[in-house]
Amino acid sequence: MNDFKARPYEPLEKDHPLVGDLCKLCNQPLLIGQRPSLVIDVDKYLNPDMLEEKEKMLANKVHNAQAAVVHWTCILLYDLPRQKEI
Ligand SMILES: [Zn+2]
Prior knowledge:
2 helices; alpha+beta; single chain
């Protein structure tokens, strides 16, 4: 988890299912033309169903990653770990 790096995805087209979803960082909707990205969603590991995955994550073992969608611009704004621009 600690070496997770966010990357930008292609700008959202009008029929993309993520359009209108809320960004986990700024709580604003993702709009057409914006680039989405993903971050680890730590909150999801609080779910009792995720305890086993959380243990694996903490032990640095392979685990199911729980991700949340965010704006790529929010990744930059919050200066989160990210891959180099492509
Ligand atoms: Zn955002």
